[in-house]
Every structure is written in structure tokens, then in C-alpha cells.
Design a protein that fits this description.
single chain, alpha/beta, seven-stranded parallel beta sheet, two-stranded parallel sheet, 41% helix
Length: 313
């Protein structure tokens, strides 16, 4: 089967769908509202929580990629239904379920994050994400589906906009040589996963049965602090040194009164208040994909943002 279905068309879903097209696959993208036609991609409008309609959309596909998520502040209410629908579609059709996950399920830990750590988060969003994978893993172990999860740290790179910590809040002022603001400690080591590497990992594990039944960390370059990343981006952009300022906790709390997103970030603030370092050596030992060299990541990101801002003003 050469057909693949991607759920969601945010940064990760779009990158995955376009990579599959580049590889000559037939690609169907499922979103709630649908989209305009795009070469090589069939866009289908349906609610992925509707298991019956999703199953019909997936039927005949080799793999279904879960790259969508409910709005951040509605995870607890909507993720269970979405996860159930994905598992049903995988069971009914035989498609490999490839889930894009994050690192919330581990909760705060000391030392590098590895896939062997328990999913011990106590916060709502961490427990929700852990439960999504645990359900799929249990069904895999029962032989009812074939499932794999690929976990990424904070996205970075071309295509990452409003949701990225090195994206819309950083790149426009940086390209003007203006100070940028960041959550938490700007000098804490932090892992940044390059978006094209996410797509490559998702597609690679979909076709390799050695990967199925467990979670993997996307190949990710060594951790650098926000301040170090901003310095590299500014150097590439030629804007000179750019000041990095931590958002005061009081300002974040006040912003949370009006923004559901800022309010929800309180639970995962630890990721930026302390070192947050991903170990992706297990993936790199088992499979071919590697993290894109950092200098290439930085150049591509600066070039993409320059073009985007020149187009949008």
C-alpha cells in the first residue's frame, strides 16, 4: 500500500505530508475544515473524533499519522475521544498508527530525558498525553493494532510560527535587532527539535516494524539555552547581538487572566525554569535519520522567516 493519511495540517502535519509526497506516496490530509487543493495532497474535511468517518478515510492506507491536537486548554476534554477514534481506525483498517507525542508525560525529571523513564507526570496535560500513548501501546501489545510514538521537544525551524518558543515571539524582533522575551531561565540548557527532523522520523518508523510498539525520541541536536540559540540566529541574520529578557512571573500571571494559552503554560513552566535535555541516542542507534546539523537549522530558519515577513509585512 502506497497510501498514507495525515491527521492535522499544522507545522508537523504539513511537513510530514509534504515529505511523503516527495517520496512518491499518495497522501490524504484530514482536518476539521479542509483546505485548498495542494499538489499531491488530497485534503478531506472531517472531525477526526468521529471514528466511523475517520475509519473510512483511513481505509486502504499503510499508515495514519496523528499530528493533530485539540486546543491547548481543551486537552483534558477532547484528547480521549480523539485518541479513541485513532485507535479504532487503526484497528479496523490495519494501518500502522504513528503518533506524534511530546515530553510532557515524563513530568519534571533530573538529568536527560530517555524513553526508559516512567510516564510519571502529575499535571493534567502530562497525564493526558501519557494516557494517549498508554492506550495505543496496550492495544498494540494485545495484537489489535500496530502503533508507535515519536516524541519531540519544542519545535523549531521553517513552518513553526505561533506555537514555537523560538518562532513568532522571537524571530520578528530578532530580525530587526530588537530584544526578545522568553519564558523561564534564558540560560537553562534546552533541547530544540528541528521540524523537518520530526517529519523524517515519523515517516521512517512508519515503515520499519522494528520501531513499532514503543516510543522514540526524534533525533535532536545537543541542548542549547534560549540565549545561545538567539545568539546563533542573530549571527546568521547579521543583526548583531540581541538582548534576551525573561518574562517576569507576574507579567505571565497577569497575561494568563486573558489568554488561555498563557494560563495553561503554568503546568509546564518547569521545562524552561531548569535544564530540559533530550537524549535521542536510542533512535540514532536503531535507525538512519539523524538530526540536521545546527548551522543548517539556523540558516533555514532565518531564511524562512525573512521570506515570510517580507511577504506578510
Amino acid at each position: 500500500m502506497n497510501s498514507h493519511v495525515v491527521i492535522g495540517f499544522g507545522p508537523a502535519g504539513a511537513a510530514t505530508a509534504r515529505l511523503l509526497v516527495e517520496q512518491g506516496r499518495t497522501v490524504k490530509v484530514v482536518t476539521t475544515s479542509g483546505r485548498s487543493p495542494e499538489p499531491g495532497i488530497e485534503h478531506v474535511a472531517l472531525d477526526a473524533k468521529d471514528s466511523g468517518r475517520l475509519t473510512e478515510a483511513v481505509r486502504g492506507a499503510a499508515a495514519v499519522y496523528s499530528c493533530a491536537a485539540p486546543p491547548y486548554h481543551r486537552w483534558a476534554a477532547e484528547w480521549p475521544a480523539l485518541a479513541s477514534s485513532l485507535c479504532t481506525a487503526a484497528e479496523e483498517t490495519g494501518a500502522v498508527l504513528v503518533m506524534l507525542g511530546n515530553l510532557y508525560g515524563y513530568g519534571p525529571v533530573d538529568g536527560p530525558l530517555t524513553e526508559e523513564l516512567p510516564l510519571a507526570a502529575t499535571g493534567t496535560k502530562g497525564r493526558v498525553r501519557a494516557a494517549v500513548w498508554e492506550r495505543a501501546r496496550d492495544l498494540h501489545q494485545q495484537g489489535r493494532i500496530r502503533a508507535v510514538e515519536v516524541r519531540a521537544s519544542d519545535f523549531f525551524g521553517p513552518g513553526v510560527t505561533d506555537g514555537g518558543h523560538l518562532a513568532a515571539r522571537v524571530m520578528p524582533p530578532l530580525l530587526r535587532g530588537k530584544p526578545v522575551s522568553t519564558l523561564g531561565d534564558p540560560d537553562a540548557p534546552h533541547s530544540w527539535t528541528y521540524l523537518p527532523d520530526v517529519a523524517r522520523a515519523l515517516v521512517e518508523v512508519a515503515g520499519d516494524e522494528r520501531a513499532w510498539g514503543r516510543a522514540w525520541h526524534v533525533p535532536t541536536e545537543p541542548a542549547l539555552s534560549v540565549r545561545e540559540m538567539v545568539a546563533r540566529l542573530a549571527a546568521q541574520a547579521g543583526t548583531g547581538p540581541v538582548a534576551v529578557r525573561a518574562v517576569p512571573p507576574l507579567a505571565l500571571a497577569l497575561g494568563g487572566l486573558f489568554s488561555p494559552l498563557l494560563r495553561e503554560l503554568k503546568e509546564t513552566r518547569y521545562q524552561f525554569d531548569r535544564p530540559f535535555v533530550v537524549d535521542s541516542s536510542a533512535y540514532e542507534t536503531a535507525f538512519a535519520a539523524r538530526a540536521t546539523p545546527l548551522d543548517q537549522q539556523v540558516k533555514a530558519t532565518v531564511d524562512w522567516w525573512r521570506e515570510r515577513l517580507a511577504t506578510t509585512g
